[in-house]
Specification:
Structural class: alpha+beta
Radius of gyration: 20 Å
Strand order of the largest sheet: 1-2-3-11-5-8
Distance between the termini: 30 Å
CATH superfamily of the largest domain: Jelly Rolls
CATH class of the largest domain: Mainly Beta
Shape: elongated
Strand content: 15-25%
Largest sheet: 6 strands, antiparallel
Number of domains: 2
Number of helices: 6
Order of helices and strands: HHHHHEEEEEEEEEEEEH
């Protein structure tokens, strides 16, 4: 896998700090499971954060604080030893083997083990979606999008942030060409029109924190129907 497009440093810092929304954090975690470069960056950010915490003066605590913490731990449900903690994906160093049906580990709880078994929802000819049970903000979306070869999204910009991770196929836009594992980390300054340039459907994992802003009249008309 030759990943050329990575997450912005500000996004990685927010992820390490735990301040991203659930929908945004899911896309980041999926990219981290595929990208050793961004995993290394998060490891460095977490190390700096740990050093800063160690430099703080200790605060006074109540004498029974330890007992209260231990009591809370006793109430936690048991976790299988085979489970993969969401937060620890940034430190994994193993090589990720991918194929045309590869589903990143954090996404499997939402869609299962196969991209081919997803119950896609028809939007318009050549474009299908699958909404995820994932929290969004300010009317944003968290979904998988499947677009046929040669099809393009309507030109749009963002009233907030958008993360798009490529899981199959590829597309090109004003920023560049995005293939398997690449992630588009976009803000409100970017206007683009992704066009699928692969000979297979392009499947993307998308998270936005606000509705898109379409440039054309057609985009504004179909927006309530598509949910974008």
């Amino acid at each position: 896998m030759n990943i050329k497009h990575h997450l912005d440093e500000a996004t990685l810092v927010s992820y390490a700090a735990g301040s991203l929304s659930q929908s945004m954090a899911l896309v980041v975690a999926c990219h981290l499971s595929m990208c050793s470069t961004c995993r290394d960056s998060v490891n460095g950010i977490e190390a700096i954060g740990g050093m800063l915490l160690n430099s703080l003066d200790p605060a006074d605590i109540n004498a029974d604080s330890l007992n209260k913490v231990l009591a809370c731990l006793d109430e936690e449900p048991c976790v299988s030893i085979d489970s993969e903690p969401f937060i620890n994906l940034s430190s994994r160093k193993k090589t990720i083997k991918t194929n045309d049906n590869y589903v990143p580990s954090p996404l499997r709880d939402y869609v299962g083990e196969s991209l081919n078994s997803i119950d896609w929802k028809f939007i318009v000819p050549g474009i299908y979606s699958y909404d995820l049970a994932c929290k969004t903000e300010r009317g944003g979306v968290s979904r998988l999008l499947r677009i046929a070869p040669g099809k393009a999204m309507l030109p749009h910009r963002h009233d907030g942030s958008e993360l798009t991770l490529i899981l199959r196929g590829s597309y090109s836009d004003e920023i560049g060409r995005f293939t398997l594992g690449d992630v588009a980390d976009l803000d409100s300054e970017i206007e683009h029109q992704p066009l699928v340039d692969s000979n297979e459907d392009c499947i993307c994992l998308i998270a936005t924190d606000a509705p898109l802003k379409f440039k054309t009249l057609l985009g504004k008309i179909v927006q309530p129907i598509t949910g974008f």
